[in-house]
Amino acid sequence: GQQLNQSPQSMFIQEGEDVSMNCTSSSIFNTWLWYKQDPGEGPVLLIALYKAGELTSNGRLTAQFGITRKDSFLNISASIPSDVGIYFCAGLITNFGNEKLTFGTGTRLTIIP
Amino acid sequence: DAMVIQNPRYQVTQFGKPVTLSCSQTLNHNVMYWYQQKSSQAPKLLFHYYDKDFNNEADTPDNFQSRRPNTSFCFLDIRSPGLGDAAMYLCATSRDLTGTGSYEQYFGPGTRLTVT
């Protein structure tokens, strides 16, 4: 199936650094979701975005819905060890009860001691 | 707390031996999804239920079936597991979007399936 372009594919950072990742699509979406997945667990919803240009925060996390509706960004400030994991973006077009997410390819975040 | 529950968390089955994975939810969401996720890849949608209406993805093998006896429960049946079916299976739920202006999809913790 279709996947979104998510970058970077992986990141190696030191604790305390800020992190940025993004997703781009050739199609427009009217909802963007950001998930974090720990090893052996299911994805956990971090932030949901519903309007073009919307900027939403959840603690140290900030995400933006691109003005073109074809992209979204996630920033993590002052990273801590528990931020390690795989981050997925997901886009959605409303379809009257038949909504399905299109996932990004994931960004693996590693914190270097 | 309202949540999506999957049992078991780990399942081992033999090649060709039918296996059933379970999902339950206390969110009272009317849409339930089953995904397959292989190592370091994004989840891949197998099918979903909108209430009792079953929606199969075009590329989901016939080997995979699903049942939803009521709002709270959904099952994934793999009729004849092959080695290639070893994966994490994720259940997810969402509310009907129509008229709400918002959409969120919540995942369970997953069942790791091993095929020997």
Mind explaining what this structure looks like?
The complex is a heterodimer of chains A (113) and B (116). Chain A is globular and about 45 Å long. In chain A, strand 6 (55-58) and strand 7 (61-65) form a beta hairpin. Chain A contains no helices and 11 strands. In chain A, strands 2, 4, 5, 9, 10 and 11 form a 6-stranded mixed sheet that branches. Chain A is mainly beta. In chain B, the strands form 2 sheets. In chain B, strands 2, 4, 5, 6, 9, 10 and 11 form a 7-stranded mixed sheet that branches. A 4-stranded antiparallel sheet of chain B has the order 1-3-8-7, with no helix packed on it. The termini of chain B are far apart. In chain B, a hairpin with a 2-residue loop joins strand 5 (44-50) and strand 6. Chain B is globular and about 45 Å long. Chain B has 116 residues and is mainly beta. The mean pLDDT of chain B is 93. Classes of the chains: A mainly beta (113), B mainly beta (116). The interface between A and B is medium-sized, with 29 and 32 residues.
Helices and strands, with pairings:
The complex is a heterodimer of chains A (113) and B (116).
Chain A: E1 5-7, E2 10-14, E3 19-24, E4 31-37, E5 44-49, E6 55-58, E7 61-65, E8 71-76, E9 85-92, E10 102-103, E11 107-112
Parallel strand pairs in A: 2-11
Antiparallel strand pairs in A: 1-3, 3-8, 4-5, 4-9, 6-7, 7-8, 9-10, 9-11
Chain B: E1 4-7, E2 10-13, E3 19-25, E4 31-37, E5 44-50, E6 53-56, E7 64-67, E8 73-78, E9 87-94, E10 105-107, E11 111-115
Parallel strand pairs in B: 2-11
Antiparallel strand pairs in B: 1-3, 3-8, 4-5, 4-9, 5-6, 7-8, 9-10, 9-11
Summarize this entry quickly.
With 113 residues, chain A is mostly beta strands. Helices cover 0% and strands 51% of the residues of chain A.
Q: What does the average pLDDT of chain B come to? A: 93
Outline of chain A: globular
Order of helices and strands of chain B: EEEEEEEEEEE
Our estimate of the beta-strand percent of chain A is over 45%
Q: Hey, which two chains have the biggest interface?
A: A-B, 29 and 32 residues
Q: What's the story with the biggest beta sheet of chain A?
A: 6 strands, mixed
The computed structural class of chain B is mainly beta
> Which regions of chain B contain 5 or more consecutive residues with pLDDT less than 50?
none
User: Taking Cα atoms only, what radius of gyration of chain A do you get, to the nearest Å?
Assistant: 14 Å
Number of extended strands of chain B? 11
Weakly predicted, low-confidence segments of chain A: none
* Rounded Rg of chain B: 14 Å
Oligomeric form of this entry? heterodimer
Q: DSSP helix count of chain A?
A: 0
Helix and strand pattern of chain A: EEEEEEEEEEE
Question: Which word captures the global form of chain B?
Answer: globular
Secondary-structure content class of chain A: mainly beta
